[in-house]
Amino acid sequence: MRGSTLRLLVLATALVVGPATLAPVTAEAPGPVAAARATDGTTAAKRYGWGEAQWDFGWEFGESLGDGAYTGRKFGLGSWSDDSTGTGRVVKYGGGLEFHSGEVAQSTNAPDRGTTTLRLEGLPAKRGRWELRERIHFYPDRDAPGGKPYRFVVELVPEDPAQYDCGRHNITVADTVVGGSTVKIQANAGGTSWRKTLKGFGRKGDEDDRFYGLQITKKRITWFVNGTAVASLAAAAALPKTPMTVRMRLVGEGNDTEMKKTDIRIDWVRGFDLARGKKTPKGASLTKGRGVAC
Questions:
Q1: pLDDT higher than 60, residue 272
Q2: CATH architecture of structural domain 3-290
Q3: Pairing label, strands 263-272, 244-251
Q4: What are phi and psi of 208, to 5 degrees?
Q5: pTM above 0.90, yes or no
Q6: Nearest Cα to Cα of residue 216 among 196, 241, 199
């Protein structure tokens, strides 16, 4: 039985007997097309045995941004909120969400400006594991003169807005220039930050997806790209002191700077606890430096 058919049956059963009986999703690898690529298609959850997801947003059954997790132990909880300072927006598409920098039509001369933000509400945690699958739609003229490339940033931020303090305690899961080959990671602790630039992550086209993940235990933060532990930090000061939540941003250079037309596709976002899993390799170390200035 194919996975999509099975999920439809599971969802139909849940609607009859109630959310409490919906079985939690178990971390799974992407399909055979992704498995043939350089990433080998394995998520960190699959590779390191994270087990059942606490919550899973896959948007496979027509859910809106305001709907709760469609499966997992915390089925039905949480929601997403979006905001834009310019022309961008976040919309539903077939099996996930898309960040649109502006009008979708490739031939349009409409502007692409500002920053578009998507934030998870109602599922905060100080410890745990998070992972998502992201893809970029490359427009044919993406390398043409005119317009600057956007950045796409995935972070954990304090869930309580009162604790945000200019990003001085954010953890950057991935900071990439759209079309670039590097992934920047960072952990902030007030006046101190730890940073690392990871190289060699160029893309081959629209279907060349990436998997970004983060694990926070009582002693260590570990970053994952394409299912592999790539860096870790054991500084006690960097560990969250307040519950954190996921935030994703398509970042422009102010509201008046014209950027290159960009679509970012998010197929799914999942959260896991620390109850199961293999011991994770430490990965590369980060460089300590001055913290974020407000």
A1: yes
A2: Sandwich (2.60)
A3: unpaired
A4: -90, 85
A5: no
A6: 241
